[in-house]
């Protein structure tokens, strides 16, 4: 392999001091604008780089005795500095880059991803940072870049582990990194059409067609468009249209199948070689798109499975290039597969799913989970129930494919969007340029057919492909629609608005309704709160979100039925019944009361968790500690030891005089609510009252964080660490879990509203953590949820559960009920790698464990990072890949067994008449199951039984049989 030299010019000290300040998004955006106007773009000059490490002037080539060397540009000083300060690399010249630095494994391959993203930006923004500098002669030598690319991949592909774990990323990068393979002509076509539609709006309709359903006839449509609009087109636009037509002709040019294998050396797998040759020599495929897609999809999967059996990295590179060409064949011919029968449509979906797996959008094990459902098209007829299950699985294939792109590129896109908004289109472009696009179209067609057969239709404004919208939990809402296409982390939400998110924030405050593209998982705290409080919640596609943007700011009605069909319509179209749903009611009718009659504040000692049980919930402590103490008695080998700081200790500390005040903390708190009632009685608006309360609670919260701790409490806590947890305080990492009397009430879950501190070690941090947990019920988010649903939100008492950390391999949530199926005897689970899995809305691995013993994968994990718990305290971010499932078969068997035992023993041991489902937090360490929490699974019965929701829920005859010969198109 050639030796590549990476040289960065050292700046003068005063320059470095100034340039190092360009770190915020505003500064980077200003730099981008400057580079766009510079005739050299991100470069400052051109030099010869010789093999001995010397650098020579552009007219002074490297001498023969040294070697030929390479000629290319050097980066500007501010571009170099940005790479150092922010790990953002602009205008990367490959021949100027060390391959290891470019692969950038320590930073989750950020430099490679940035290179790909920049190629996209260049396409959609006339060269982007090279707008003026794209013709800076000699800056980049294409032949050197291609030679570098070949050497880069030949070296990278020697590593089995990289190819196995990063198959999708490596394969995608081949579309952008030059290596003598085909250029990314599909992206070029989409970029050029986007630029034209931005500059000439009447072209938008054709641009959408080219992006969504590209086919050869588009060429004639563009030609006719040019003729029709010729009198309005400038010389520049005419030139751009000619370039687009040239690109489209190249894209739609028939591929010579015989050329597929001409560059491939001898394969070690003779069976794969036979398949390749048979495909390349099958002359009948060229005029038979259906058979072509069948064979190409099958071969794509065989290539994916067989590439690791080849040991020659050059052969691996050639096979990956063949794989890209096969995907191109499937992509171009998908629309030509005419689906004039249900059987044909189902078969097409199956093969497009197979192609997605072959192209890396699905992992092999994920495809194996789907294949059994999607290959069920040979029967003479299928029931509506069977078709609905097939649709669910096919829709999953589309969602998992899209989430694979997001999981790989979201981090870099999110960084770039901060200073270059156009970067937000990159992920959509990647999805639209893949077989996943056509899989989504075919699944949408199946969804429309099934909706027609079952009368289960959505009414979501005027969006296309409405079958991609599905309800997650029932409810109805009325309010302003807010559509948020990017990050939601900094969004301030309002309780009377309906939000459409790409991904909801994990600390979501109360809202009227939610719809999300990335739903996270169905048992996250956000989802459980929405389910508990009858907040209508739906999932939709990114395309649906984009189409809803034009309704942003309008007042709408939003409803999700008990069966998951969705209504979203303008206020003007609401029926009288729907209007009457929002007739103002007394607040008391909508809210519940926290019981405080049995609370015991006389217990002021730190308790061994073994000494409490379920009877103590809401009396001595909250349900986390009480229930875990109960679990410790029932399952001593599956539950850690623990300490409980009861309500009484908190209350005793609140009787101290508050810093800067003349009254105690407790009196200050109660005065806030007394004054709020007085303000309401004087007809002040609720918003003004709430703002007053939030300001006062912020004062209280900050004061509690510095509250003096009583000596006897600190000594008791230290003694508890030594006697119960087995080590002195400061030597064992622990979790501090807020555990209030407002959680797990009959009609209010309170899940995730208050603070949990992960893996705290040092004594000072533990004591500070106690104060922080006591203060957490007075945060804006916690208060707003309580204020909205509780009659006496001031009567919140936090206890604290202190348990030693378990550095689990993976963790998650078990619901002893089928949330999706509605079957009380099914189980729903969601797991992520590391600690704190699934509860914060991660893209977790989710299963429906059916009563009949079948384990149905609902979603694979798509979270690239996870938290580990080092013994030194805190959390450590680690990265992961998706080629194997999170849970193994033994884990699933253990979860089933544990769920059965919980359902049988908990009611008996607690002498409870509760017959509902349980919400259990658990984890695995070295395949051993650990229990961390159990609580009742609270659902909003009002929403589930609402007359209105029942009226919009169609009665579906799932036993209805449909012949597979039926045409799916009306």
Q: What distance separates the N and C termini? A: 60 Å
**Low-pLDDT windows of residues:** 1-19, 585-589, 747-751
**Quaternary state, please?**
single chain
What is the count of structural domains?
A: 6
Provide a descriptive summary of the structure in words.
The protein contains 34 helices and 26 strands. The chain has 970 residues and is of the alpha+beta class. It starts with 12 loop residues before the first helix and ends in a 7-residue tail after the last strand. Helix content is 43%, strand content 14%. α5 (110-124) crosses α18 (384-417) and α16 (342-358) packs parallel to α18. The protein folds into six domains: 1-181, no CATH class; 182-253, no CATH class; 282-454, no CATH class; 462-584, Glucose Oxidase, domain 1 (3-Layer(bba) Sandwich); 617-652 and 693-804, Dna Ligase, domain 1, CATH 3.30.1490.20; 810-937, ATP-grasp fold, B domain (D-amino Acid Aminotransferase, Chain A, domain 1). The radius of gyration is 31 Å and the shape is globular. An eight-stranded mixed β-sheet has the order 5-12-11-7-8-9-10-6. It has a six-stranded antiparallel β-sheet with strand order 21-20-19-18-24-25. A five-stranded antiparallel β-sheet has the order 13-14-17-15-16.
How are the secondary structure elements laid out?
Blueprint: H1 13-19, H2 25-37, E1 43-49, E2 55-56, E3 70-75, H3 77-86, H4 99-103, H5 110-124, H6 142-156, H7 160-165, H8 167-173, H9 185-199, H10 204-212, H11 217-228, H12 235-252, H13 270-280, H14 289-306, H15 313-333, H16 342-358, H17 364-374, E4 381-383, H18 384-417, H19 426-432, H20 435-454, E5 459-460, E6 470-473, E7 475-484, E8 497-501, E9 513-516, H21 525-532, E10 537-539, H22 542-548, E11 555-560, E12 566-570, H23 576-580, H24 587-590, E13 607-608, H25 623-634, E14 643-645, H26 647-654, H27 665-681, H28 686-704, H29 711-725, E15 734-740, E16 756-760, H30 763-775, H31 780-789, E17 798-804, E18 810-815, E19 827-833, E20 845-849, E21 855-859, E22 865-868, E23 876-879, H32 889-910, E24 918-925, E25 928-936, H33 941-945, H34 947-951, E26 961-963
Parallel strand pairs: 5-12, 7-8, 8-9, 9-10
Antiparallel strand pairs: 1-2, 1-3, 4-26, 6-10, 7-11, 11-12, 13-14, 14-17, 15-16, 15-17, 18-19, 18-24, 19-20, 20-21, 22-23, 24-25
Helix pairs in contact: 5-18, 6-15, 9-10, 9-12, 11-12, 13-14, 14-15, 14-16, 16-17, 16-18, 16-20, 17-18, 18-19, 18-20, 27-28, 28-30
């Amino acid at each position: 392999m050639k030796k590549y030299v990476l040289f960065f010019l050292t700046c003068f000290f005063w320059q470095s001091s100034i340039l190092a300040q360009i770190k915020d998004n505003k500064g980077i955006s200003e730099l981008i604008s400057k580079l766009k106007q510079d005739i050299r773009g991100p470069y400052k000059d051109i030099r010869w780089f010789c093999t001995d490490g010397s650098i020579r002037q552009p007219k002074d080539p490297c001498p023969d005795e040294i070697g030929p060397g390479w000629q290319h540009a050097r980066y500007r000083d501010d571009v170099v500095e940005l790479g150092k300060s922010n790990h953002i690399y602009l205008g990367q010249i490959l021949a100027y880059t060390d391959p290891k630095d470019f692969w950038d494994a320590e930073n989750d391959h950020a430099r490679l991803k940035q290179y790909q993203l920049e190629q996209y930006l260049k396409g959609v923004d006339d060269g982007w940072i090279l707008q003026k500098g794209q013709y800076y002669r000699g800056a980049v030598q294409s032949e050197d870049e291609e030679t570098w690319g070949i050497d880069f991949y030949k070296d990278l592909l020697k590593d089995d582990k990289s190819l196995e774990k990063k198959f999708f990323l490596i394969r995608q990068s081949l579309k952008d990194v030059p290596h003598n393979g085909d250029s990314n002509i599909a992206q070029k076509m989409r970029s050029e059409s986007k630029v034209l539609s931005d500059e000439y709006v009447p072209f938008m309709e054709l641009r959408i067609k080219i992006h969504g359903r590209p086919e050869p006839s588009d060429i004639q449509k563009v030609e006719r468009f040019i003729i029709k609009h010729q009198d309005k087109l400038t010389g520049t636009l005419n030139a751009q249209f000619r370039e687009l037509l040239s690109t489209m002709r190249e894209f739609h040019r028939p591929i010579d199948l015989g050329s597929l294998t001409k560059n491939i050396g001898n394969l070690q797998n003779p069976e794969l070689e036979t398949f390749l040759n048979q495909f390349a020599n099958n002359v009948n495929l060229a005029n038979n798109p259906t058979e072509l897609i069948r064979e190409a999809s099958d071969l794509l999967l065989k290539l994916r499975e067989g590439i690791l059996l080849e040991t020659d990295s050059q052969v691996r590179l050639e096979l990956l290039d063949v794989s890209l060409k096969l995907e191109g064949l499937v992509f171009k011919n998908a629309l030509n597969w005419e689906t004039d029968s249900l059987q044909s449509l189902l078969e097409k979906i199956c093969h497009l799913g197979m192609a997605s797996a072959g192209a890396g959008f699905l992992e092999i094990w994920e495809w194996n989970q789907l294949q059994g459902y999607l290959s069920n098209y040979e029967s003479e007829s299928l029931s509506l129930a069977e078709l609905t299950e097939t649709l669910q699985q096919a829709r999953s294939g589309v969602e998992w494919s899209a989430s694979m792109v997001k999981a790989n590129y979201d981090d870099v896109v999110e960084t770039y969007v901060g200073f270059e908004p156009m970067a937000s289109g990159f992920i959509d472009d990647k999805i639209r340029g893949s077989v996943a696009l056509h899989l989504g179209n075919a699944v949408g067609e199946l969804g429309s057919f099934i909706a027609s057969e079952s009368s289960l239709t959505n009414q979501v404004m005027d969006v296309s492909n409405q079958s991609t919208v599905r309800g997650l939990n029932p409810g109805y809402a009325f309010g302003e629609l807010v559509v948020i296409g990017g990050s939601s982390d900094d969004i301030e939400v309002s309780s009377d608005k309906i939000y459409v998110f790409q991904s909801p924030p994990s600390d979501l405050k109360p809202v009227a309704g939610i719809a999300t593209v990335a739903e996270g998982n169905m048992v996250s705290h956000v989802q459980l709160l929405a389910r508990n409080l009858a907040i209508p919640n739906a999932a939709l596609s990114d395309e649906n979100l984009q189409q809803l943007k034009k309704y942003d700011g309008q007042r709408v009605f939003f409803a999700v039925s008990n069966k998951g069909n969705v209504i979203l319509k303008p206020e003007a179209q609401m029926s009288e019944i729907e209007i009457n749903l929002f007739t103002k009611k007394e607040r008391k009718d909508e809210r519940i009361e926290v019981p405080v009659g049995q609370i015991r504040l006389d217990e002021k000692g730190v308790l061994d968790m073994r000494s409490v049980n379920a009877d103590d919930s809401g009396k001595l402590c909250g349900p986390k500690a009480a229930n875990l103490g109960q679990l410790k008695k029932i399952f001593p080998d599956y539950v850690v030891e623990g300490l409980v700081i009861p309500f009484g200790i908190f209350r005793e500390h609140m009787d101290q005089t508050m810093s800067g005040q003349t009254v105690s903390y407790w009196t200050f708190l109660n005065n806030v609510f007394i004054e709020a009632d007085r303000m309401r009685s004087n007809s002040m608006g609720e918003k003004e009252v709430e703002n007053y309360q939030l300001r006062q609670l912020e004062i209280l919260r900050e004061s509690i964080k510095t509250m003096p701790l009583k000596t006897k409490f600190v000594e008791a806590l230290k003694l508890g660490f030594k006697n119960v947890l087995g080590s002195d305080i400061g030597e064992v990492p622990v979790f501090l879990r807020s555990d209030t009397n407002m959680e797990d009430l009959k009609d209010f879950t309170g899940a995730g509203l208050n603070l949990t501190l992960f893996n705290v070690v040092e004594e000072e941090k533990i004591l500070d953590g106690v104060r922080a947990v006591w203060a957490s019920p007075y945060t804006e988010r916690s208060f707003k949820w309580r204020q909205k649903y509780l009659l006496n939100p001031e009567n919140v008492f936090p206890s604290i559960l202190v348990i030693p950390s378990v550095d689990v391999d993976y963790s998650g949530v078990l619901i002893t009920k089928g949330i999706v199926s509605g079957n009380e005897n099914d189980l729903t689970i969601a797991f992520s790698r590391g600690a704190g899995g699934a509860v914060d809305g991660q893209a977790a691995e989710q299963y429906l464990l059916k009563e009949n013993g079948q384990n149905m994968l609902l979603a694979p994990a798509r979270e690239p990072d996870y938290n580990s718990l080092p013994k030194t305290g805190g959390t450590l971010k680690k990265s992961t890949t998706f080629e194997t499932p999170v849970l193994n078969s033994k884990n699933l068997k253990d979860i089933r067994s544990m769920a059965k035992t919980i359902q049988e023993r908990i009611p008996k041991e607690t002498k409870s008449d509760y017959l509902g489902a349980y919400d259990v937090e658990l984890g695995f360490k070295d395949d051993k199951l650990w229990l961390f929490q159990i609580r009742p699974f609270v659902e909003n019965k009002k929403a589930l039984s609402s007359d209105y929701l029942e009226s919009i829920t169609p009665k579906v005859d799932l036993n209805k049989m449909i012949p597979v010969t039926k045409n799916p198109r009306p």
